[in-house]
Every structure is written in C-alpha cells, then in structure tokens.
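Record type: ASSEMBLY
Status: queued
Input:
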Amino acid sequence: QVQLQESGPGLVKPSQTLSLTCTVSGGSISSDTYYWSWIRQHPGKGLEWVGFIYYSGSTYYNPSLKSRVTISVDTSNNQFSLNLNSVTAADTAVYYCARTVTTPPYFDYWGQGTLVTVSS
Amino acid sequence: QSALTQPPSASGSPGQSVTISCTGTSSDVGGYNYVSWYQQHPGKAPKLMIYEVTKRPSGVPDRFSGSKSGNTASLTVSGLRAEDEATYYCNSYAGNTNYVFGTGTEVTVL
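Status: finished
Output:
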C-alpha cells in the first residue's frame, strides 16, 4: 500500500519561500507510470493543482503559479519537494502531495495534508 | 484556468439518489474523457471515487457512478448512506499538462 507523508514548516513569513517535502513509502517514486503532484486547499475552499514532477525530473506547473513554483525529486530517498517563493497570506493553505497516474490522469493516493500559514 | 462549476450543495434521504454536476468547457471536460471525482470528509484528504469519467477504483462501492455529456460531467450516488455525507470535487484534464478542479459540492444526507 502506497503512503505519502508531507513534512515541513507550518509557518512561513511573507515574502519568504515555502518548502515542503513528500516522502513516499510502499512504492518507488522512479516508476514510469506516475507523476508526483502537489495540490493545495485554501481554508474552507476548493482544491487547486499546483504542479507535478516525473521521476526523470520533468516538471509541469499550474500556469497561475508557474513563476513562483519549483518541484524537485530525490529518487535516492523516494521523496519529492515543493518550493513556492515570494509567499503572501494568499498562499496559506493545506498542501497535499499525491500520486498521479499519467494516463488516464487521476490522483489515486494522497498524503494527509499539512497546513502552512503565511504570517509575520 | 477557471475552476469547473459545481452546485454548492446537494442532499437526499437515506436510500435515495443524488446527482452532482460538473460544468466546464470544450477545453477541459468536453475535450477529454479524463474526468475524475474525489470525496472529502472534513479534515481528511480527498479520496478517489471515479476516474476516466465512468471507472471505479477497487474498493469504491458500485453505488457511485459517473457520466458525461458535452461539457458537463456528473456523479451519481445511489442508495445514499450516512457515510456518503461529504464534499465532492470533480477534476478534469485541461490540455497542455494542466488540470483543473471543480468548486466542490457538499452532500448532505437528510
């Protein structure tokens, strides 16, 4: 059974960089069948796809966040990471990592989510 | 990329059926058979219920079914049970390796 677990600071100051890591267990992040995604949910709001990465390092980002987002992968530790720079209060959200089947595309396993608050 | 449009709420009595719509455009829902649906209970992570418009993952009851017509996809929950009370989100591929979620529908079991 695949499991994903997010980790990282729960509080980030405005204008700084939000950094989260997702550790994958029960399966290899190097599989060619999956992308590895970040999805966020603003408090009391809907879901927003942030972007994903393939094990090779190819990345795909939500156009609305593309200028501020970087996703990277560490295959040796079965982890992938999210960096979101120049954060504001509008980036306060629960951040989920999820395994994403490439074709057909869907998100089949999710982490429990981690709340990141942007505040001074 | 705008979020797909879902009704804010839907309800039904135990044993009844409820259908949730998810309306997009020809660039997302109407353009691809890549609609998926997710169930989210409060404080929990979303759970995949339907993928590729009509397919159910292993373990999802056959009370859950999906369909699509034109730019609108639908999720039907038949034989409503108390545990079906949750918020449901649709998601669609939107081309150019982009994905868009729906606004979410809160289902209440009366």
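Annotation: Chain A has no helices and eleven strands.
Annotation: The mean pLDDT of chain A is 96.
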